[in-house]
Amino acid sequence: MAEQQGGAPHQDEAAAKPNMIPGVKHVVAISSGKGGVGKSTVSVNLAVALALTGAKVGLLDADIYGPNIPMMMGVEKTPEQKDGKIAPAESHGVKLISMGFFVPEDTAVVWRGPMVHTAIQQLFRDVLWGDLDYLLIDLPPGTGDAQLTLTQLVSLSGAVTVTTPQEVALHDVRKGMMMFQKVNVPLLGIVENMSFFLCGHCGERTEIFSHGGGERAAEKLGIPFLGRVPIDPAIRAGGDTGNPIVVAKPDSPQAQAFREIAAKLAAALQTGEAGAAKSRIASLLDKIKRPATGN
Ligand SMILES: Nc1ncnc2c1ncn2[C@@H]1O[C@H](COP(=O)(O)OP(=O)(O)OP(=O)(O)O)[C@@H](O)[C@H]1O
Predict the structure, then answer these.
(1) Residue among 31, 39, 41, 193 to mutate when testing ligand 1 (max atoms within 8 A of CB)
(2) Which ligand 1 atom is nearest residue 194's CA?
(3) 55: which DSSP letter?
(4) pLDDT at position 114, please?
(5) What is the pLDDT, as a whole number, of residue 277?
(6) 23 C-alpha to center of ligand 1: Å?
(7) Name one GO biological process term (predicted).
(8) Is 193's C-beta closer than 6 angstroms to any atom of ligand 1?
(9) pLDDT of residue 17
(10) Domains, the chain, with CATH or none
(11) Residues 160, 164, 167, 171, CA torsion sign
(12) Distance in Å, CA 42 to ligand 1 centroid
């Protein structure tokens, strides 16, 4: 990817590739095969952990069926409009837009395919994201309209999948990963959430949802395992109060787990970039070496 100073994609490049968001360097989808595995919790903590490294980070809550990122980030105010565009909210150093801002609370929304398409398109096109190093997208669970729309509308740097460790959740992971593979979205890795519970009183470790499934799935699929996060009341409380654990308890092992996963994700994106640059150079060299055929 050609870059201007500061790392954002060049405006010309963005114009040439209409699916790129001008000024946004990496767009990463955070997905899950099924609901309730902690995808939003992981999205929020990774976004804030990346912002704490000094990166410019945006978070797009595309979970049209249960947009709870504003609550998890402690944002109540609806974003302002400027010249027909939407200025994202900002919290814990992260720019934030959610479908939840535009849908009245406690309203059940029935989204048909084209509506999903239009809504997600607007969140990309009409939001003043500015220059970002990372735009994380919290997808709805599963492999439906929103996921496919997204892969059509925006050039994704890759997808991360969140799962719990048990076999039934992993079955859905494989399905989700296959969808991304089919549409040529690089698989950046698997995060295993709710991996184990450490008793606060006796320190005993209990593996509520079985053991090691995320890592085994990563191995089988040949994609990176980004790390595991324990099940912990402080992580849940961080979500409920709008204070993600990486800021609420930065010295805790749970926060450390999220920071390590964020670092691995950043490294995977850089490797992807280096890999793409290498293959561009290799193909250039190949062209230079190959004698002209005259036609
Ligand atoms: N590691 C964890 N420890 C304790 N609670 C957690 C953990 N991860 C998530 N939770 C809690 O589990 C619930 C579901 O998490 P979350 O909303 O992040 O899941 P989700 O996969 O995004 O769900 P959905 O896609 O169905 O909306 C929340 O109450 C959240 O606080």
Answers:
(1) 41
(2) 1
(3) -
(4) 73
(5) 57
(6) 31
(7) iron-sulfur cluster assembly
(8) yes
(9) 47
(10) 21-289 (3.40.50.300)
(11) negative
(12) 8
Distance CA 36, CA 40 (A): 9
Displacement of CA 258 from its chain's centroid (Å): 13
Assess whether the C-beta atom of 63 lies below 6 angstroms from ligand 1: yes
- Residue type for position 7: G
Expressed in angstroms and rounded, the spacing between residue 240 Cα and the centre of ligand 1 is 10
Determine whether the shortest distance from the Cβ of 141 to ligand 1 is under 6 A.
yes
Q: List the chain residues with pLDDT less than 50.
A: 1-17, 294-295
Look up residue 110 and give its amino acid: V
> Under the phi-then-psi rule, with left for phi > 0, alpha for psi from -120 to 50, and beta for the rest, what region is 268?
alpha
What's the chain's length in residues?
295
ipTM over 0.90: yes
* pLDDT score of 48: 98
Q: Residue 188 belongs to what H/E stretch?
A: strand 187-193
- What's the CA gap between 84 and 126, in Å, rounded? 8
